[in-house]
Design goal:
This protein has about 160 residues and is mainly alpha-helical. It contains 5 helices and no strands. The longest helix has about 35 residues.
């Protein structure tokens, strides 16, 4: 209980999230009306209430998988501009994800930034899908042979390192 009422939104979000427990109340069975700004800023708390800790962990793992694949696209892109563009977009999406999840879980100060691809919001959603579309366009232009060449170079380096030891 916060006697000053200064953190009422955050406390409501945390209590909703923690009431989900390990497995949650079930998809669509939570009470998001008790969580303020549930469709936008506190959507992660609603996920925690309805899908529990497992659902929250799954969302984080999906985001980490996306970031890993996007950085891999940047690694195998032949053009430096495309690689920098993918790195910049991916880092911006990762930072926005960290700020939202961290704010809802009280790890970092709450900023009011929506969770990418999940929160309700027109301009944020359009921006995120534009970034995703550009990342996919750059990934589509990356040649599969380039990845094979990078693997061969990596194998040669490790073989050379073993011989020098």
């Amino acid at each position: 209980f916060d006697p000053t009422g200064a953190s009422w939104q955050l406390l409501q979000g945390l209590s909703g999230m923690f009431s989900g427990g390990l497995w949650g109340a079930g998809f669509g069975e939570g009470t998001p009306e008790s969580i303020p700004i549930a469709a936008s800023d506190f959507i992660y708390a609603v996920i925690g209430e309805e899908l529990g800790y497992v659902g929250c962990l799954l969302v984080v793992l999906l985001f980490l998988g996306f970031f890993s694949r996007a950085y891999r696209v940047a690694k195998f892109t032949s053009e430096p501009f495309g690689a920098l563009l993918v790195i910049g977009f991916t880092t911006a999406i990762a930072l926005q994800t960290f700020l939202n999840i961290g704010g809802v879980t009280k790890t970092v100060p709450l900023t009011g930034i929506p969770l990418p691809f999940i929160s309700h919001g027109g301009s944020s959603l359009i921006t995120m899908f534009t970034c995703l579309g550009l990342i996919l366009a750059i990934a589509d232009s990356t040649h599969p042979e380039l990845e094979k060449t990078a693997k061969k170079k990596s194998a040669k380096r490790s073989a050379k390192a073993k011989r020098s030891e």
